[in-house]
Structure formats: structure tokens, C-alpha cells
Amino acid sequence: MSIYEQKTVHVNSYTKNDGTHVKEHYRGIGNSNGIMPEKTPEYRDDWGTETKNPLDKLINILTGKDTGTQQDSFNMNAGPNIVLSGGVSTSNIDFSNILSAVLSVGSIALTVGITAAQVAGKLYKAGLIGNISEKAKLKPQLNTEIQKIKETQNLADKIEKNTLNKLVNTKNQQEYSELYKTLAEQRDLNQKNRLAISRIEYASEHEDYQTVLNELNNYQSNYKTAEAARTISSMPSMDPNRAPVKSNTPKYSKLEQLRRTGLHKAPYIEKLAINAGMNYYEHYENCPDANAFWQAAVAGFKNSSEYIAENSYYLIDSTKQLPRNIRTFVQAKVLKQIGKVDAPGIILRPDCRLTQEIVHSPEFKNFLDENFSSLIEGNVVNGSTYFGSSKNLALALGHADITNLHIDAEGNLKGYVIDTYDFNKDDPMWQVEWAHNLQERGEITNFYTINVLSIPKEVWTQIILNK
Question: What is the H or E stretch that residue 249 is in?
């Protein structure tokens, strides 16, 4: 019988012989603890202590039988307090809320995983060129990052224990069933991550940094699988008669909604206001490309001749004019993002201001660090990232694709950064809501941008080596 099929019974509250008061709860038939009756495979708990059944251990913690852990400690921020470079601290995690805690820990896990991969990539490169001093300097850093990953896993274990605590004490049959499903998903994710972490440790000890990179990728991928997605989503109803989940569309006050949509019938005012804002950003917040793109959209490139001459190869009228190696990709992106089969585009040179800002951005460095081993093995890398380290990048590009990235025969790094200039519906920023209204009315021209990357060997290798 699976955990989804197990029958349960209601147990009234009572007082044990030792004076401990037990709240009313549901438990599984055939198991006095009310937890999964099936045996589970052996695994190593607490980074070295063997246990036959992890759930039995958690039950003991809940009932106070485990002398190493106090009962009802799940809402406390016990254990090491990890503070990441981004300012994320475990003291901000609410362990009493399962969804909130899983989201927070998932974010930490992905962050520490990326940092560890960056260090492992440098170690891998140092090993290839025989740089012993660099390896000696980087190995302690990798050990530190692996320790952070282990501590993050301890936080995930706390959430699993908290779920179990809620399951044991709930008086609602429906919540009991949903918590069972959530607990199973959490346990599956945690066991996968424990296995990946063990392999990461072993490979690091034996200086097998290619395997470290592979297992770090598995560790991060575990959080992105369907099972992990179900775990970090709000728990679904298992009652077919329950009211449907309400839409996640943001709710705004009457005043905020008026600001967002009140001028939709006067688009010329919205356009003038955005024009003023973009001019301000260019002159006072160093956003020349962001304003140039907006002006191109407003005037259909009629006033963009100076920008095009200074920064681009040329403006093209149709995707059919693109080289074959990127034509299909751009056509699909235009159709998906803009909803049209074709659109104009601007091809920006490798030496132009925006391309250089991309190349020297922390986002591009992180992308190189994450894909370093694949690049030096001669593979072509494709991916995407959000460029938000500067307002100019955020407003001009935002989320963009990095495609056909590869090292050529001379050791230079070649590729493209491709984006569409469009505005999403229901964006939380009211300025984007105005721009989307202009877009829907045909008041602005959507287009795509292609930044051509051609980075000399000495430049991109220095980007990777810089911290």
C-alpha cells in the first residue's frame, strides 16, 4: 500500500503515564505512530549517522525520544546562520510556513550551488594548465562552499521535519492527506540532494573537478524538476468539491489601478510621460541604450540613424535576411514574444557600448563560469540570463538569450545575445503597463536586437579569472 492509499483514523487527545499531553490527531491504521508503515531504504543521516528509517527518527524527534533534539524546535532558527554574498540570511526564513521556507531554502540552495560551480570551474581550469599554486588557493574556497551546501541541506531537513510535525498534529483529514503528499515530495528531493552532495564531497577530495561540476549541476537541477516544483508550489486540493484556486493576478487598490489604466484612453499622454522618463534615465542614470531603444520603438527607427551608425552593423527589415545559424531561432522568438511572423531588427557590433557592457557584466561572467567546462571541451553553449546589474541593461535587455557561444580555432569567444523589445501584460510596474497599452494599440514598433559577441582570448579568460 502506498502512502497515498493508507487509511487513517482519528485519535482523541490523551495524557501519557509520564504526564505528557498528546493532542488529537490522525494516524495510519496498523502503525501506532500514524506515519508511513512502509520501510524505507537505508541512507546516511546527519552526515554520517546511519539510520534504518528516516521517518522513524523524525517521529522520535517529535515525541521527544531523540535526546539530541528538543521537541517543537522547528520554528526556531537553530543551526548555522548562512549569510550569502547577496545578503540572504537564514534568520529571514519562517520555518513555521512550509511554502515560504521551501522557497527561501530553494533560493539559497541555487545560489550556493552557483558559487560552488564557479570555484570548481576555476579549479578544473587550473588542473588543465598545471597551475598548482592556483589549485592550492582555490581548494579551501571549494571546501567552504561545499560546507554551505551541506548546511543548506540541513535547513531543508528542518522543513521536512516541520511538515511531519504538522502532519502528526493536524485535525483536518484533507490537510492530513495533502501533507502526506508534500512530505513524500520533500523526502524524495532531500534524498536526491544528499546523494549529489555525497558525490560532490567524494569527487572534491579526489580532485575530480569535472565530476564536481556534473554533480553540482544535478544538485541544482533537482530543485527545478517537476517533483521540486510541486513541493514549492502551494499544496493542491485533493477534494474535487473544493472551490477552485483563485487567479494569481496581482490585486491593486483603486488608486493604483487608476494610475495603471486610467490613461489608457489617452495613449498620447502615456507616450509623452514615458518619453520624459526615458530621457531622464539617459541623462541622470546612464541609460543611453535603453532610451535609444525606446525612441526607436516610438518612431519606428526614423530618428535612430545616429545610434545605428555609431553602434550597429545595420538595421534589417526582415528575419529572412539573417544568417542561417540564427534565423530559425530568432523567427521562433519573435513569434513567441511579439506574436508576429516577422519583425525588424538591429544587429549591434562587438565593440559597441551595449555589447561591451554585456561582456563585462557580472551576469555574463556568471554565465561563463557556469559553462566553462563545456566551452573548453569544444561544445556550443546556449542559455539565457537576466541582465539587471545596471539600469541600462535592465531596461534595454532584461531577460535575454545567449546563443551559439563557442570558442573558435584561435581561442576567441564567439556568439550572440538576442532579445526582443516588447512589453509584457500585467507587469507590476505601471510604466510597463502604459507601454504595453501603446504596444497593443500599435503605437510603438516591436523589434529584436542581436548583440554580436567576438571576445579575444586574453579578454574572456581574464573575465573568468577575475573574482
Answer: none
